[in-house]
Amino acid sequence: MEERIFTFREFQKIKNKKIYSKLKKYIDDNDLEDRYEFFKITKDSIVPQNFVGTIPLNDIQIEILPKIPLVENDIVAEKNRFLEILQNISYFKEKFFNDSKIAIADTSILEIFINLFIKEVEEIIEKGLLYRYIGRNENISVFKGKLDINNHIKYNFSHKEKFFMKFDEFSINSLENSIIKLTIQKLKKISVNLKNKEKLNKISHHFENIIILPNSIENLKYITFDRTNDYYKNSIQWSKIFLNNQSSLIFSATNGEVATMLFPMETIFENYIANKLINIVKEKFYNQLIVKVQDDSCSAFSTATLNDTKLNNMFNVKPDIVIKNKNSKEIFILDTKWKILDKLDNKFKISTDDIYQMLSYVKIYNDRYKNSYTCEKAYLIYPATNIRKNSFSSEDKIKFKTDNFELNICFVNLSSEETTEKDLVNILSKFIKEEGKDEKNRKI
Length: 444
Hints:
Number of domains: 3
Structural class: alpha+beta
Number of strands: 17
């Protein structure tokens, strides 16, 4: 079967009639429009919204790329960059991406993931499949292990030649092997990449005698790793993605044969920027700055009561990122926005709600920490892009000020780790420079 992948971007209209009918049926079957708002359906088009990923539909795959190109005019480099970003988000903190290069041209993100899983399983096969002692209860003609007295009386009253025994058997039918076999079976049904399908068929032969254990998927969460099974770790992590649908970052709709991976780009962008800031602070600013992600230490109200009875904190706010300067005793509020701004728009397409939200964050944090810190500055971080002439680059800076509030609009170039780190270091350096200014003012 020829590999057929159709590539679109977020918010690009899908009008091809054959693709439209197949995709609409899949969206309706899995409630992806109303419940998850992944798509908007009109009479003649389907528009993917705010996610990146792959949808396998029988003999074709629909691939959705970011609305903001991560790398300009180079799809292969862009997919490589997207994988690089995924390695820096919390869900993939195990870094179970194989370091070896993958042929990415004309291959969907899903097929890349399948290829990475295959490579991990190939390494397992090379090292040898895992055997474990498996507890068994069985009516046998040999006395081994421990006699199960209750069952022995129940089943063998008239069969003196039998023994109902409890014993451990050194078996290849471990939970780890059961999980990998289940994953291989599923991927064989959804892959349309000829090389992947060939490799899946090849590795499946090594697992054909494995018995799939009852409740394997339910028991997947109980697998732990030690020196005996550590070489299974990456493959099991991939299996969790393909089988479990457990991540808030990955939506996987399944009907037995289809696995759809959709990555909400707002969450990916937020998580990526937060983790990069944490790492940069650890490396360069650990003596001065503290980073907290999704900090919920502050409530909109200092106290709450019901009929004069004190209540626990409620209506806690949760900014994306909070950074404290330990020396200058300042707090900076940062939020990320996966959105393209426009220089020609009278408000640059900055949401008024976002501004009010940042204003409220600053006020709440300033009130909460007024005895130890000041909080007057907030930052909205957007992806930089040259997709349009009127778009913003990472060199652009926007600042809004009042007497006790400053909102900075910053842009980060996502085309490489180097450009992203450079732009984030520039933002963090402002927090240190402010400290230097304060010290000078105090001396004067």
